[in-house]
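[recover] target loaded
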């Protein structure tokens, strides 16, 4: 039974949920029951609790949207892409096909920043986000460092527009500026904290990424060149002169890249370079300090 043949306005929520579970299971989606519940909730505009409390309610006019969402999810599109929203650090962000879908492991940068700058949370810090994308990192950091000001830079005009929208939606437009730019080129001034989640996937590995990433995240935000290190070779040397004395640089890294990025940090004149692990126990962030 196809989704389209099964869902009607009269279809009850419990029946729709069972159909989605069956469809997602057949498509090999991990944890199909959970995914079905989230998809049904998002498409029908009701809370997960409502699905439990009133399972016999008919879908009504939401049937077509449930059908559409389910078909797209079954094809591998992440639900965050389907609804155009993603939560990051407790904040809601609009995302588009032109920006990376911010993921929980990137919150490791925020955690590391809070740990290393814990004694400076009340200071008027200056923060730079290189490759700002959706604006998730700069917004999360400004929400924690409440007297800080931030600059976000991205080479993509479309991404910069998404970031500006999210900065405004988070109520941070008065403390953040989004610029078009190519990493550190043309920047001046001094920053207390520079962060970046750059493209770090080796070009040859792009086709081996999960389809949720390979087919829906922009290649510009993924492709790190032959060895995945192209962006670091530009970001680290360029950031060194932009950091104030004692300032910190934090960059997200991919699996197996810690030693190489630590070496680039040392060659670029940084000190006290170290790694932070994500919740899966993988090295996720390299942090390095300006002397």
């Amino acid at each position: 039974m196809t989704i389209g043949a099964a869902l009607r306005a009269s279809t009850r929520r419990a029946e729709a949920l069972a159909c989605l579970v069956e469809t997602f299971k057949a498509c090999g989606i991990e944890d199909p029951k959970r995914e079905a519940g989230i998809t049904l909730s998002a498409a029908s505009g009701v809370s997960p609790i409502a699905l439990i409390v009133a399972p016999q309610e008919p879908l009504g006019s939401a049937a077509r949207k449930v059908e559409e969402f389910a078909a797209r999810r079954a094809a591998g599109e992440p639900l965050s892409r389907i609804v155009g929203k993603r939560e990051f650090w407790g904040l809601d962000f609009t995302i588009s096909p032109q920006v990376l879908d911010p993921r929980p492991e990137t919150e490791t940068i925020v955690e590391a920043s809070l740990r290393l700058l814990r004694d400076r949370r009340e200071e008027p810090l200056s923060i730079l986000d290189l490759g700002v994308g959706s604006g998730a990192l700069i917004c999360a950091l400004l929400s924690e460092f409440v007297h800080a000001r931030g600059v976000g830079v991205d080479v993509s005009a479309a991404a910069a527009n998404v970031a500006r929208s999210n900065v405004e939606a988070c109520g941070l437009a008065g403390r953040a500026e989004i610029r078009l730019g190519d990493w550190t080129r043309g920047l001046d001034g001094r920053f207390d904290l520079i962060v970046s989640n750059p493209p770090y996937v080796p070009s040859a590995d792009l086709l081996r990424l999960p389809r949720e990433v390979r087919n829906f995240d922009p290649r510009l935000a993924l492709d790190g060149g032959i060895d995945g290190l192209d962006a670091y070779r530009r970001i680290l040397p360029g950031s060194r002169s932009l950091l104030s004395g004692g300032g910190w640089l934090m960059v997200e890294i991919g699996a197996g890249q810690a030693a190489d990025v630590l070496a680039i940090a040392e060659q670029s004149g940084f000190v006290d370079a170290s790694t932070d692990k994500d919740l899966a126990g993988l090295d996720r962030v390299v942090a390095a300090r300006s002397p």
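[recover] notes: The two ends are 64 Å apart (CA to CA).
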